[in-house]
TrEMBL record:
Pfam families: Glycos_transf_1 (PF00534). The keyword Transferase applies. Transmembrane segments: none annotated. GO terms for molecular function: glycosyltransferase activity. Keywords: Transferase. It comes from Algoriphagus faecimaris. This is Glycosyl transferases group 1.
Amino acid sequence: MDDIMLLAGFAQLKPMGFDFELVYSYHGHSFKTTGNWLNQVDKVLFLTELGYHQTKSNHQEFTPEVFIIGNGVDSKKYYPINAGDKKLAKINKGFLADDIVITWLSNDRPKKGLQLFLKLIPRLVQKYPNLKVQVIGNSQPIPHFGSRVSAIGRVPNDDLPIYLQLSDLYCFTSLWEEGFGLTLTEAAKCGNLVIASENGGIPEVVNGQSFSFLVSSPNVLSQWEIQIENAMKTLNSYTPDPIFLASYHSLEDWENKFLYALES
């Protein structure tokens, strides 16, 4: 379960004589409870070690057994394509074969930072003549920036991989304590260099990989410009490793960790 109120309700049944194992699979970064019912919870499954330690520090007493299970992405859907196929994919989606494509993908709630990325766009297209931008997942119209910016909007999940596979850079402007960053992981597995907020569990998810560029002050626009520039400088020397990326936060690994936690 991932409902703190429901968890509290089940926990309060145990002192009444109901005998069951209570497992809380938490999909955010960290949580805080009040009252003493948490000691009735047998196990908590966290996305990251960082989230566990933050939650532990939120409580004077934290008694559940803990498992760090992460999250998983299907490597059969999200994987890097070769250079020729990438050029063809760009052409099929209306780009030029040699365009550099930067992608923003999320819903457009303020905590996901689209409003910040929209301020970045004019600076980026002015600075990098061969850069094109695609914005995916927004439900509201965005300003018109000209032909170098594609506002794609919502895309069915099955159609997402090709947009990430043709992309070169992925900008993850999360402005809250992100639990994991699933789209960030999908983009990385498709061969993108990722520029991401140093928020929540994100540093642990990217784990210092060469494809990652973290922004320690994500509310400061100039910090994004610096890390995007660093990523642009790295682009020509970065070759995605399909074998490593297939194992990077794979769905199979997550399933194994989840089952192990339940069966232990």
